[in-house]
Amino acid sequence: MATFPEMNKTNIDEIPTKIEKFYNDNFPFRAILLNEFFRFKLKQGQSPIPNVIVGNGRLYQQKSVQIYTGQIKIKEEELSDKVKELKYRYTYFKERGIKMYVMIVPASPEIYPESLPLSVQRVKETQTDVFCNLMAVSASEIPFIYVKSQLLSHKQDRNLYRNGDNHWNAYGAYYASEELLKLISKGFPSIPEQKMSNYNFTPRCVLSGNLVDALINPRTTDFFQEDTIYDVSLVDTSIIITNGEKRDYTIPKNFSYPQLYEQEFVCNNVDLPKIVIIRDSFFTEMVPFITPFFRESVLIWDAWQYARNFDIVEKEKPDVVVYEITENAITNILSE
Question: Looking at 157-226, which runs of residues are DSSP E strands?
Fold first, then answer.
Protein backbone atom coordinates (compact mmCIF):
# COMPACT_ATOMS: atom_id res chain seq x y z
CA MET A 1 0.00 0.00 0.00
CA ALA A 2 1.38 3.40 -1.02
CA THR A 3 2.49 5.90 1.60
CA PHE A 4 2.13 9.67 1.38
CA PRO A 5 5.08 11.02 -0.67
CA GLU A 6 7.90 13.09 0.75
CA MET A 7 7.81 16.68 -0.53
CA ASN A 8 11.02 18.25 -1.80
CA LYS A 9 12.13 20.34 -4.77
CA THR A 10 13.89 17.43 -6.45
CA ASN A 11 10.68 15.48 -7.14
CA ILE A 12 8.20 18.25 -7.97
CA ASP A 13 6.74 16.80 -11.17
CA GLU A 14 6.04 13.31 -9.78
CA ILE A 15 4.24 14.47 -6.62
CA PRO A 16 0.70 14.54 -8.19
CA THR A 17 1.06 10.93 -9.41
CA LYS A 18 2.35 9.72 -6.04
CA ILE A 19 -0.46 11.48 -4.15
CA GLU A 20 -2.96 9.93 -6.56
CA LYS A 21 -1.58 6.47 -5.84
CA PHE A 22 -1.63 7.09 -2.08
CA TYR A 23 -5.30 8.06 -2.07
CA ASN A 24 -6.34 5.31 -4.48
CA ASP A 25 -4.72 2.74 -2.19
CA ASN A 26 -6.12 4.13 1.05
CA PHE A 27 -9.64 5.43 0.29
CA PRO A 28 -12.33 3.19 -1.34
CA PHE A 29 -14.46 4.88 -4.04
CA ARG A 30 -12.14 7.83 -3.87
CA ALA A 31 -11.55 7.85 -7.66
CA ILE A 32 -15.28 8.03 -8.53
CA LEU A 33 -15.96 10.83 -6.05
CA LEU A 34 -12.85 12.73 -7.05
CA ASN A 35 -13.69 12.55 -10.76
CA GLU A 36 -17.11 14.08 -10.07
CA PHE A 37 -15.59 16.76 -7.85
CA PHE A 38 -13.10 17.70 -10.59
CA ARG A 39 -15.92 17.98 -13.13
CA PHE A 40 -18.01 20.12 -10.77
CA LYS A 41 -15.15 22.57 -10.15
CA LEU A 42 -14.17 22.83 -13.83
CA LYS A 43 -17.78 23.58 -14.81
CA GLN A 44 -17.51 26.58 -12.48
CA GLY A 45 -14.30 27.67 -14.20
CA GLN A 46 -12.25 26.79 -11.15
CA SER A 47 -9.35 24.46 -10.54
CA PRO A 48 -10.06 21.47 -8.29
CA ILE A 49 -6.46 21.44 -7.08
CA PRO A 50 -4.38 24.33 -5.72
CA ASN A 51 -1.21 23.92 -7.77
CA VAL A 52 -2.97 24.46 -11.13
CA ILE A 53 -4.72 27.69 -12.14
CA VAL A 54 -7.44 27.42 -14.79
CA GLY A 55 -7.34 30.26 -17.32
CA ASN A 56 -9.14 30.96 -20.57
CA GLY A 57 -7.98 28.07 -22.75
CA ARG A 58 -4.68 27.81 -20.88
CA LEU A 59 -3.50 26.30 -17.60
CA TYR A 60 -0.95 27.96 -15.32
CA GLN A 61 1.35 26.72 -12.60
CA GLN A 62 0.33 28.16 -9.22
CA LYS A 63 3.86 29.27 -8.28
CA SER A 64 4.19 31.17 -11.57
CA VAL A 65 0.99 33.05 -10.82
CA GLN A 66 2.06 33.78 -7.25
CA ILE A 67 5.31 35.33 -8.48
CA TYR A 68 3.36 37.27 -11.12
CA THR A 69 0.98 38.73 -8.50
CA GLY A 70 3.66 39.32 -5.87
CA GLN A 71 2.33 36.70 -3.43
CA ILE A 72 5.81 35.22 -3.66
CA LYS A 73 8.54 37.84 -3.44
CA ILE A 74 11.71 37.35 -1.45
CA LYS A 75 13.73 40.21 -0.01
CA GLU A 76 16.00 42.20 -2.28
CA GLU A 77 18.93 41.32 -0.01
CA GLU A 78 18.44 37.62 -0.78
CA LEU A 79 18.28 38.29 -4.51
CA SER A 80 21.41 40.42 -4.19
CA ASP A 81 23.16 37.41 -2.66
CA LYS A 82 22.23 35.38 -5.75
CA VAL A 83 23.75 38.08 -7.97
CA LYS A 84 26.94 38.09 -5.88
CA GLU A 85 27.13 34.33 -6.28
CA LEU A 86 26.87 34.63 -10.07
CA LYS A 87 29.57 37.32 -10.05
CA TYR A 88 31.84 34.97 -8.13
CA ARG A 89 31.27 32.26 -10.73
CA TYR A 90 31.89 34.68 -13.58
CA THR A 91 35.25 35.68 -12.11
CA TYR A 92 36.17 32.05 -11.45
CA PHE A 93 35.49 31.07 -15.06
CA LYS A 94 37.09 34.17 -16.51
CA GLU A 95 40.34 33.36 -14.70
CA ARG A 96 40.27 29.99 -16.46
CA GLY A 97 39.54 31.38 -19.91
CA ILE A 98 35.88 30.33 -19.91
CA LYS A 99 33.03 32.67 -20.87
CA MET A 100 29.92 32.47 -18.67
CA TYR A 101 26.38 33.44 -19.65
CA VAL A 102 23.09 33.55 -17.72
CA MET A 103 19.64 33.16 -19.29
CA ILE A 104 16.39 33.58 -17.34
CA VAL A 105 13.27 31.91 -18.76
CA PRO A 106 9.95 33.72 -18.22
CA ALA A 107 6.98 31.81 -16.84
CA SER A 108 3.82 31.64 -18.94
CA PRO A 109 1.86 34.38 -17.05
CA GLU A 110 4.44 36.90 -18.28
CA ILE A 111 3.84 35.89 -21.92
CA TYR A 112 0.11 35.12 -21.84
CA PRO A 113 -1.41 37.34 -19.12
CA GLU A 114 -4.56 37.83 -21.20
CA SER A 115 -5.63 34.21 -20.56
CA LEU A 116 -5.34 34.44 -16.78
CA PRO A 117 -8.49 34.69 -14.63
CA LEU A 118 -9.71 38.31 -14.40
CA SER A 119 -8.98 38.35 -10.68
CA VAL A 120 -5.26 37.82 -11.31
CA GLN A 121 -3.36 41.09 -11.65
CA ARG A 122 0.37 41.62 -12.05
CA VAL A 123 2.28 43.25 -9.22
CA LYS A 124 4.15 46.39 -10.24
CA GLU A 125 7.54 44.76 -9.69
CA THR A 126 8.03 41.00 -9.45
CA GLN A 127 11.03 39.36 -7.82
CA THR A 128 12.24 38.59 -11.36
CA ASP A 129 12.15 42.30 -12.19
CA VAL A 130 14.20 43.04 -9.06
CA PHE A 131 16.70 40.31 -9.93
CA CYS A 132 17.10 41.57 -13.51
CA ASN A 133 17.63 45.14 -12.29
CA LEU A 134 20.26 43.95 -9.83
CA MET A 135 22.03 42.05 -12.59
CA ALA A 136 22.03 45.15 -14.81
CA VAL A 137 23.34 47.46 -12.06
CA SER A 138 25.58 45.23 -9.96
CA ALA A 139 26.75 42.59 -12.44
CA SER A 140 26.80 44.35 -15.79
CA GLU A 141 29.98 42.48 -16.73
CA ILE A 142 28.02 39.19 -16.92
CA PRO A 143 26.42 38.49 -20.31
CA PHE A 144 22.81 38.11 -19.21
CA ILE A 145 19.46 37.76 -20.94
CA TYR A 146 15.85 37.53 -19.78
CA VAL A 147 14.04 36.45 -22.94
CA LYS A 148 10.61 37.87 -22.06
CA SER A 149 10.68 40.77 -24.54
CA GLN A 150 11.87 38.53 -27.37
CA LEU A 151 9.03 36.08 -26.79
CA LEU A 152 6.43 38.83 -26.49
CA SER A 153 7.53 40.20 -29.86
CA HIS A 154 6.75 36.83 -31.51
CA LYS A 155 3.62 35.68 -29.65
CA GLN A 156 1.32 37.03 -32.37
CA ASP A 157 3.06 34.86 -34.96
CA ARG A 158 2.30 31.53 -33.27
CA ASN A 159 1.67 29.91 -29.90
CA LEU A 160 4.93 29.75 -27.91
CA TYR A 161 3.90 27.95 -24.71
CA ARG A 162 1.94 24.76 -24.22
CA ASN A 163 -1.70 25.23 -23.22
CA GLY A 164 -1.76 22.31 -20.79
CA ASP A 165 1.81 22.56 -19.52
CA ASN A 166 3.90 25.27 -17.87
CA HIS A 167 6.72 24.93 -20.44
CA TRP A 168 7.26 26.57 -23.79
CA ASN A 169 6.91 24.58 -26.99
CA ALA A 170 9.52 24.21 -29.73
CA TYR A 171 8.79 27.66 -31.18
CA GLY A 172 9.25 29.37 -27.83
CA ALA A 173 12.47 27.43 -27.37
CA TYR A 174 13.64 28.43 -30.84
CA TYR A 175 13.24 32.16 -30.21
CA ALA A 176 15.02 31.82 -26.86
CA SER A 177 17.90 29.93 -28.50
CA GLU A 178 18.14 32.59 -31.19
CA GLU A 179 18.70 35.29 -28.57
CA LEU A 180 21.11 33.18 -26.53
CA LEU A 181 23.21 32.36 -29.59
CA LYS A 182 23.31 36.04 -30.60
CA LEU A 183 24.75 36.79 -27.18
CA ILE A 184 27.31 33.98 -27.24
CA SER A 185 28.39 34.59 -30.85
CA LYS A 186 29.69 38.05 -29.91
CA GLY A 187 32.60 36.27 -28.28
CA PHE A 188 32.70 33.35 -30.71
CA PRO A 189 32.45 34.51 -34.33
CA SER A 190 32.73 30.92 -35.59
CA ILE A 191 29.13 30.34 -34.43
CA PRO A 192 26.87 30.81 -37.49
CA GLU A 193 23.61 32.75 -37.46
CA GLN A 194 20.57 30.96 -36.11
CA LYS A 195 17.72 30.81 -38.65
CA MET A 196 14.27 29.23 -38.39
CA SER A 197 14.69 28.01 -41.95
CA ASN A 198 17.41 25.67 -40.65
CA TYR A 199 14.74 23.42 -39.12
CA ASN A 200 11.75 21.27 -39.92
CA PHE A 201 8.93 21.62 -37.39
CA THR A 202 6.63 18.59 -37.63
CA PRO A 203 3.43 19.11 -35.58
CA ARG A 204 1.53 16.47 -33.66
CA CYS A 205 -1.41 16.81 -31.28
CA VAL A 206 -1.44 15.48 -27.72
CA LEU A 207 -3.87 15.68 -24.83
CA SER A 208 -1.21 15.75 -22.15
CA GLY A 209 1.09 18.07 -20.21
CA ASN A 210 2.28 18.38 -16.63
CA LEU A 211 -0.71 20.60 -15.74
CA VAL A 212 -3.55 19.03 -17.71
CA ASP A 213 -2.44 15.57 -16.57
CA ALA A 214 -3.25 16.62 -13.00
CA LEU A 215 -6.84 17.54 -13.96
CA ILE A 216 -7.87 15.11 -16.65
CA ASN A 217 -9.95 12.03 -15.91
CA PRO A 218 -12.83 10.19 -17.63
CA ARG A 219 -15.26 12.87 -16.42
CA THR A 220 -13.21 15.95 -17.39
CA THR A 221 -11.79 15.11 -20.82
CA ASP A 222 -14.33 17.33 -22.60
CA PHE A 223 -12.99 20.43 -20.80
CA PHE A 224 -9.62 20.27 -22.55
CA GLN A 225 -8.36 20.55 -26.11
CA GLU A 226 -5.35 18.86 -27.62
CA ASP A 227 -2.05 20.71 -27.51
CA THR A 228 0.23 20.99 -30.54
CA ILE A 229 3.83 19.96 -29.99
CA TYR A 230 6.60 19.68 -32.56
CA ASP A 231 9.27 17.23 -33.57
CA VAL A 232 12.29 19.23 -34.75
CA SER A 233 14.92 18.13 -37.26
CA LEU A 234 17.69 19.87 -39.18
CA VAL A 235 17.14 20.72 -42.84
CA ASP A 236 20.85 20.41 -43.59
CA THR A 237 21.54 16.68 -43.25
CA SER A 238 25.30 17.26 -43.50
CA ILE A 239 25.18 18.55 -39.90
CA ILE A 240 25.27 15.43 -37.75
CA ILE A 241 24.51 15.41 -34.03
CA THR A 242 25.29 12.24 -32.10
CA ASN A 243 25.15 11.23 -28.46
CA GLY A 244 28.45 11.73 -26.67
CA GLU A 245 30.14 9.47 -24.17
CA LYS A 246 28.54 9.31 -20.72
CA ARG A 247 30.66 10.74 -17.90
CA ASP A 248 28.71 9.18 -15.00
CA TYR A 249 28.85 12.26 -12.80
CA THR A 250 27.21 11.93 -9.38
CA ILE A 251 23.43 12.42 -9.60
CA PRO A 252 21.77 14.58 -6.91
CA LYS A 253 19.97 12.55 -4.25
CA ASN A 254 16.21 12.04 -4.84
CA PHE A 255 16.33 13.63 -8.31
CA SER A 256 13.22 12.50 -10.19
CA TYR A 257 14.87 12.26 -13.60
CA PRO A 258 18.25 10.56 -13.07
CA GLN A 259 18.40 9.53 -16.72
CA LEU A 260 18.39 13.22 -17.68
CA TYR A 261 20.92 14.45 -15.14
CA GLU A 262 23.68 14.47 -17.71
CA GLN A 263 23.45 14.45 -21.50
CA GLU A 264 26.25 14.75 -24.02
CA PHE A 265 25.95 15.66 -27.68
CA VAL A 266 28.64 15.86 -30.36
CA CYS A 267 28.44 17.89 -33.60
CA ASN A 268 30.60 16.94 -36.56
CA ASN A 269 31.83 20.54 -36.98
CA VAL A 270 35.05 20.48 -34.95
CA ASP A 271 35.70 24.20 -35.47
CA LEU A 272 32.88 25.19 -33.10
CA PRO A 273 33.36 25.90 -29.37
CA LYS A 274 32.48 23.47 -26.56
CA ILE A 275 29.68 24.29 -24.12
CA VAL A 276 28.53 23.16 -20.67
CA ILE A 277 24.94 24.06 -19.80
CA ILE A 278 23.53 23.94 -16.27
CA ARG A 279 19.89 23.55 -17.13
CA ASP A 280 16.36 22.78 -16.02
CA SER A 281 13.32 21.28 -17.76
CA PHE A 282 12.88 24.27 -20.11
CA PHE A 283 16.10 23.41 -21.89
CA THR A 284 14.69 20.10 -23.17
CA GLU A 285 12.98 21.89 -26.06
CA MET A 286 16.12 23.94 -26.74
CA VAL A 287 18.39 20.95 -27.34
CA PRO A 288 17.89 20.71 -31.14
CA PHE A 289 18.47 24.45 -31.52
CA ILE A 290 21.70 24.64 -29.51
CA THR A 291 23.62 21.43 -30.16
CA PRO A 292 24.33 22.18 -33.88
CA PHE A 293 26.30 25.28 -32.84
CA PHE A 294 28.84 23.60 -30.56
CA ARG A 295 31.29 20.81 -31.31
CA GLU A 296 30.38 19.28 -27.96
CA SER A 297 27.49 20.06 -25.61
CA VAL A 298 27.40 18.77 -22.04
CA LEU A 299 24.04 19.30 -20.31
CA ILE A 300 23.70 19.05 -16.52
CA TRP A 301 20.25 19.12 -14.92
CA ASP A 302 21.11 19.34 -11.24
CA ALA A 303 17.61 19.18 -9.76
CA TRP A 304 16.87 22.92 -10.02
CA GLN A 305 19.84 23.82 -7.81
CA TYR A 306 21.82 25.71 -10.48
CA ALA A 307 24.93 24.94 -8.46
CA ARG A 308 28.45 25.99 -9.42
CA ASN A 309 29.38 22.55 -10.74
CA PHE A 310 33.01 23.68 -10.83
CA ASP A 311 34.23 20.07 -10.64
CA ILE A 312 32.36 19.18 -13.83
CA VAL A 313 33.52 22.30 -15.63
CA GLU A 314 37.13 21.66 -14.61
CA LYS A 315 36.94 18.16 -16.13
CA GLU A 316 35.13 19.24 -19.30
CA LYS A 317 37.26 22.33 -20.02
CA PRO A 318 34.61 24.05 -22.15
CA ASP A 319 34.85 27.39 -23.90
CA VAL A 320 31.37 28.39 -22.71
CA VAL A 321 29.26 27.83 -19.58
CA VAL A 322 25.56 28.75 -19.57
CA TYR A 323 23.22 28.80 -16.58
CA GLU A 324 19.67 28.46 -17.93
CA ILE A 325 17.26 29.26 -15.10
CA THR A 326 13.47 29.43 -15.02
CA GLU A 327 12.26 32.55 -13.24
CA ASN A 328 10.28 30.37 -10.81
CA ALA A 329 13.57 29.00 -9.48
CA ILE A 330 15.85 32.05 -9.29
CA THR A 331 15.80 31.70 -5.52
CA ASN A 332 17.22 28.16 -5.85
CA ILE A 333 20.58 29.39 -7.16
CA LEU A 334 22.89 27.58 -4.80
CA SER A 335 25.71 29.29 -2.96
CA GLU A 336 28.41 26.89 -1.80
Answer: 199-206
Instruction: Tell me the C-alpha distance between 269 and 129, whole Å.
Output: 38
- Give the Cβ contact number of residue 114 at 10 Å: 9
Contact partners, residue 77, CB within 8 Å, separation at least 6: none
The overall longest dimension of the chain from CA atoms, in Å, is 64
Each residue's pLDDT tens digit, 318-330 = 999 999 999 999 9
Stated pTM of the model: 0.90
**102: nearest Cα among 73, 136, 125, 75:** 136
Q: Cα(180)–Cα(145) distance, rounded to whole angstroms?
A: 7
240 contact partners, CB below 8 Å, separation of at least 6 = 267, 268
Q: Within a domain: residue 167?
A: yes
Per the domain annotation, does 188 fall within a domain? yes
**DSSP 3-state assignment of 47?**
coil
Q: Is residue 148 part of a domain?
A: yes
Q: For residues 113 and 165, is the Cβ–Cβ distance under 8 A?
A: no
Residue 88 included in any domain: yes
CA 71, CA 258: separation in Å to the nearest integer?
A: 32
Q: Structurally, how many domains does the chain consist of?
A: 1
Distance CA 51, CA 33 (A): 20
Nearest in space to 90 (alpha carbons), one of 320, 336, 331, 334: 320
Domain enclosing residue 231, as ranges: 9-332
Which of 319, 328, 336, 327 has the alpha carbon at shortest distance from 101? 319
257: burial class by Cβ within 10 Å (0-12, 13-18, 19+)? middle
| Closest listed residue to residue 279, CA positions, set 311, 312, 305, 247 | 305
* Nearest one of 289, 296, 182 to 243, comparing CA atoms: 296
For residue 279, what are the β-bridge partners? 301
Model confidence pLDDT, tens digit, residues 205-261: 999 999 999 999 999 999 999 999 999 999 999 999 999 999 999 999 999 999 999
**What is the sign, positive or negative, of the torsion defined by CA atoms of 267, 273, 278, 284?**
negative
- Least Cα distance to 114 among 168, 201, 55 occurs for 55
β-pairing, 59-61 with 52-54? antiparallel
